[in-house]
Amino acid sequence: MKTSSKILAALLFMSSFSFGQNITKKIDSIISDNYKKNPEVGISVGFINNNEEYYTAYGNLNAESQVKIDKNSIFEIASITKILTSNLIAQAVLEHKLKLDDYIDGFLPKEYVLQQNLRNKIKISDLASHQSGLPDIDFAKLIELDPQQPVSNVTQSTLTSIINNCSELKDYGKYRYSTIGYTLLGQILEKVYGKSYDEIIRAKMIKPLHLTHTLTTDFNVKNITTAHNPNGGIQEFFKWNITASAGLVKSNASDMVTFLKAVLNKETTIGKAAIITEKIVYKDEKREMGLGLNIVTDDKNTIYMKSGDSMGQSSIICYNRNKKWGIIILLDYRNSKMRQDLLNKIYDTVLK
């Protein structure tokens, strides 16, 4: 009987291993085909399936380098930073430092003075699900001022003026993507922990998970990729300042897979916090939102995803908690359509 059990266990392992190999081969085929059609776009992909990791990458670090992109190559994950920020907010909930239904008034820096008709209206969950109704930073104008480092012109004075001069929440309760909302979430975290956002994310995410290739303010490293705007021109990585919690982080496929492992593990602090971020807090005819996460469902699956686009790179992260898989796609070009098309093809042909 024991021998039969061992044989059965071995057969199940072999079946699972074969299934995993089949998935990874199909993903690699899709990525390889995309690179053949777009050899100017470097790409790195990390995939996790039932805690097993897989990586594939194509292209060089830059046009002058013969060094190949791999799982450790550094990319801007840009707005994927927002789900790291929302996870930190959820950790603060677990620590009873705040509640998602708390109004933001008592958590804001003293420079902000909400006008009377806006007080005790905007909740922390509203900021995290892009439905606060607050006016946002004018990125188009900032790009005109400095196309390489647009956020360099955003200061505390800029933010104070936007918030204090706001007299009406024109679309409160409706989805409108907001950088200023996540900037305020970062400042709320700084107030409740008494530390800078950089210190908080290092203490609660980077160090505990040993994310040795996840960078914040200092990213002068050898294995950094070159960013390209949609026209192929070289683009600098953003030097985020006060808006850090909306897009600061630079990372790689390996560290993002480690993050996904923690998210999918309900026993980790990050996993417990992730479950909080996955609860639907906004819904309309076009989308469902958790805290920073887009939630997509069909008859068999619920997946959570977040994209990131800087001026010169594009990325997307996606996972299915029930089926225990997750994927990160990193491009060294700004091409939101390409990264979305790649995810759609991988999902429809391999993961669905």
Structure description:
- The chain has 352 residues and is α+β, with helices and mostly antiparallel strands.
- It has one domain (25-351): DD-peptidase/beta-lactamase superfamily (Beta-lactamase).
- The chain has 10 helices and 12 strands.
- It has helices at residues 2-37, 81-94, 124-128, 139-145, 156-164, 179-193, 197-206, 253-264, 269-277, 336-351, and strands at residues 43-49, 52-58, 75-76, 227-228, 234-235, 250-251, 282-283, 288-289, 294-297, 302-309, 314-320, 325-331.
- The strands form 3 sheets. Strands 2-1-12-11-10-9-8-7 form an 8-stranded antiparallel sheet, with helices on both faces. It has a two-stranded antiparallel ribbon with strand order 3-6. The chain has a two-stranded antiparallel ribbon with strand order 4-5.
- Strand 4 (227-228) and strand 5 form a beta hairpin.
- Helix 2 (81-94) packs parallel to helix 6.
- The protein is globular.
- The protein starts with a helix and ends with a helix.
- The relative contact order is 0.18.
- What is the CATH homologous superfamily assignment? DD-peptidase/beta-lactamase superfamily
Main structural class: alpha+beta
Whole-number total of structural domains? 1
| Proper CATH architecture | 3-Layer(aba) Sandwich
Low-confidence blocks of residues:
14-19
Calculate Rg over CA atoms: 21 Å
Topology-level CATH name:
Beta-lactamase
CA-CA gap between termini: 37 Å
- What is the average of the pLDDT values? 93
Major sheet: size, sense and barrel closure?
Answer: 8 strands, antiparallel
The shape is globular
Fraction of residues in β-strands: 5-15%
At the first level of CATH, what is the class? Answer: Alpha Beta
SSE pattern: HEEEHHHHHHEEEHHEEEEEEH
Organism: Chryseobacterium ureilyticum
Keywords: Signal
Family: Belongs to the beta-lactamase family.
Signal peptide: 1-20
